[in-house]
Amino acid sequence: MQIADLLMVCDRIEKIAPFISLPQPQKYMEINAEGKCLFPGVIDSHVHFREPGLTHKGDLSSESKAAVAGGVTSFMDMPNTYPNTLTQNLLEEKYSLAQQKSLANYSFFMGVNKTNLEEALKTDPETVCGITDDGLYFNDQEGILASHPEFLEHLFNRTQTLVALHSENDGIIRANYLKYYEQYGEDIPVNLHPLIRSEEACLSATQNLINLAKRHQNRLHILHISTQAEAELFDALHPPREKRITGEVCGHHLWFSDKDYDHLGNKIKWNPAIKNENDKNGLLTALLESRIDSVASDHAPHAAKEKTGSYKKALPGGPMVQHTLYLMMELYHKGLLTLEKIAEKMSHNVADIYRIRERGYIREGYHADLVLIDLYRPWQVTPNNLFYKCGWSPLSGERFTSTIMQTFVNGNLVFDRGKIANSAKGKRLLFEKIG
After folding, report:
1. Could you tell me the sign of the dihedral formed by the alpha carbons of 323, 328, 332, 335, in that order?
2. Considering the domain boundaries, does residue 334 fall inside one?
3. pLDDT band with cut points at 50, 70 and 90 for residue 29
């Protein structure tokens, strides 16, 4: 951390120095950030912004507003929109929509399932963040690609593009569900969710994926790790840029535990499930030890009515992109994370894992994606300050110690003290060519 002036010119960071003086005739806007903290813009590598086809839940305009309000200047969106993003044409259509609508910078994962392997292999790793199964059904019977090692052998044998995977075992989940269904019928309590989508279901799938990726030397990224046991499988010896296998944790798995099902119920039903207190603490330890490399939101908004009803009926997922940085800042105030570690896990490492060009750091010559935070200005989550189209948050009423004051995307002030400042659009993320 340092005290310095920073000069932005157009979309770039021009200069960083203890003191910057500009000629008087030169036109510029000065922002007095004395006493505040400037972060690199958060790169959220795991969101579901719902457009096209599911825009009653969220869309690229509404959710990118929520993103910049939460200090997120770039995002990577998953393919479980409607239709699913399973062709290169559908993928490029999403980029066209984002170019018109998104306030934040953007990339979109190419989806992969049983039917489209050849199409997925056409993905350009310099213009697309990666290939994933997250949110998709592999076939009509089972949803998780990790349960189909034969197919993964074909995929890993033929691509060097980063593959990001949801890691749970369908068979174990199904057996657990049937056990509790026999006991409770349709009235399964939601607090059994972490026993249905259990540690065993996560650990067995993650172990198998890691072994497979090691054989093929693929770039594998495990999404939303939810157990301490899984986290212990990962390498802590190398920086993320040198790793072939990396992993992320989501803010809600670091914030909530199974104790919270009693008062929040289906609002915190995510897949993978929020587990117990030991897992929550173990995930934070793994983050600090660099076994887990990055933090994402898995922002997955649903209409409020879609989160109600029986355990089976209530849809998994929830809105988080506006608040994940707030959660991490609160962990800082509790003495559990440093400010440097937050920047590392939410910006630097994401840029390094995905090899994003000229983003993720506060460096001269890099794109001016920046977030200004008042560390000691309290802020409370209320329905009136939510930007989510779905209009609800599992964090409603939560009071935080810090406030996100301003967000800059490509040098444009897009969020300013609670309001969207202008409608300047983000840019498509580009990536280094890596074998």
Report:
1. positive
2. yes
3. confident
- Whether 3 is covered by a domain: the verdict is no
Helices (H), 185-313: 193-196, 199-216, 228-231, 251-255, 261-264, 277-288
pLDDT band at 25 (very low <50, low <70, confident <90, very high): low
Instruction: Count how many residues are written for the chain.
Output: 435
The runs of H, that is alpha helices, within 261-391 are: 261-264, 277-288, 324-333, 339-343, 349-354
Identify the domain containing residue 311 by its residue range: 40-362+375-402
| Overall number of domains in the chain | 1
Residues 78-99 pLDDT 10s:
999 999 999 999 999 999 999 9
Rounded Cα distance between 55 and 303, Å, is 10
User: CB under 8 Å to 166, separation ≥6 — which residues?
Assistant: 132, 133, 134, 135, 144, 145, 146, 223, 224, 271, 272
What is the rounded CA–CA span in Å between residue 17 and residue 7? 9
CATH number of the structural domain spanning residue 217: 3.20.20.140
**Residue 29 domain-assigned (yes or no):** no
Cis upstream peptide for 52 (omega within 30°): yes
pLDDT at 128 over 80: yes
